Amino acid sequence: MNHAAGPRAWAADAGAAAHTFAEALDDVVEIGGSDGHHLQRVRRLRAGEVVTVADGAGTWRRYRIDASSSGSLRLAALGPVTQEPDLLPRVSLALALTKAGALDTVVARCTELGVARITPVRTRRAVVRWDDAQAVRALDRLRSAARAAAAQSRRARLPEIAPLTDLDVIASYPGVVVADRGGAAADALDAPSGVGWTVVVGPEGGLDPEELTRMGDKPRLGLGPFVLKAETAPIAAVAVLIEHAGRVCREL
User: Fold this and answer.
1) How far apart (Å, rounded) are the C-alpha atoms in residues 209 and 215?
2) Is the peptide bond before 203 cis (omega within 30 degrees of 0)?
3) CB neighbour burial string for 180-205, b if at least 16 within 10 angstroms, e if fewer
4) What average pLDDT score do residues 143-162 get?
5) What's the burial of 164, exposed, middle or buried (CB within 10 Å: 0-12/13-18/19+)?
6) Could you say which of 62, 74, 84, 136 would form a disulfide bridge with 67 (CB–CB 3.0 to 4.6 Å)?
7) What CATH number does the domain located at 11-83 have?
8) How many Cα atoms within 13 Å fall on the side-chain side of residue 237?
């Protein structure tokens, strides 16, 4: 059953014991599989506790646990379907490939911050290379990391994890900014057009000179006076842009 979204509010404000995802926010929802195992076996949630459930596209609902069995929960709705406010202007991230654990961490932390889309990008100085099979496995892993982080942070929208892309494709996007140690503060950026910002973050050592040239006159975003690690810079870039986006939104 589909429900029209009613009020607008953050799931993170609902005071629930946990947050998870389901395809439909029906009056009764069964949570099984890995989600059910985590909530029932790991979190040890029991009948009577309140959780929030989201569809991953921005709507969510409060539920009470009606029954708990081995690795699954049956939930009963407590209120209307609610729409999560959108973070505008949206902030997306295009980042160079790095080692698996570090990339998973970047995706998780940026999901917690509110990133809208994450796109892995091929760059010259990146040591990591994915063939087609590796790309499929890696993207599945990154989507799982984003989903877990969205549940932990009570997000109703899952960020898009886009396929591996060439830097030239990213350069054609509107609203692109390039993280660069010599760049300007976020406050110096003009408000983006409707799609928001996409911040490009290179690998260890940064984008090479030819790649920077191909980015043309895209604005450069500074992240402070120090040299940041490849897994630190993307998180810092998303954080400063989302904080700046909040100010831009209030001024529009």
Assistant:
1) 10
2) no
3) beebeebeebeebeeebbbbbbbbee
4) 97
5) middle
6) 74
7) 2.40.240.20
8) 32
- The superfamily (CATH) of domain 91-251 is SPOUT methyltransferase, trefoil knot domain (3.40.1280.10)
User: Is the pLDDT assigned to residue 1 strictly greater than 80?
Assistant: no
The torsion angles phi and psi of 9, rounded to 5 degrees, stand at -165, 165
- Distance in angstroms (rounded) separating the CA atoms of residues 49 and 115: 30
Res 27 pLDDT > 90: yes
**Listed residue (127, 79, 78, 125) closest to 102, CA to CA:** 127
Tens digit of each residue's pLDDT (9 = 90 or more) over 47-93: 999 999 999 999 999 999 999 988 899 999 999 999 999 989 999 99
Give the tokens for residue 129. Answer: 């290379």
State in Å, rounded, how far the first CA of the chain is from the last one.
Answer: 37
Q: Quick check: 117 and 162 in contact, CB under 8 A?
A: yes
Domain ranges of the chain: 11-83, 91-251
Structure tokens at 44: 């040890």
State mean pLDDT over 206-233.
93
pLDDT of amino acid 250: 55
Place of tokens 């709705």: 77
SS in 3 state form for 190-209?
CCCCCCCEEEEECCCCCCCH
| Range of lowest pLDDT (5-9, 93-97, 127-131) | 5-9
In the 8-state DSSP scheme, what is residue 41?
A: I
What's the pLDDT score for residue 252?
A: 44
pLDDT score of 249: 57
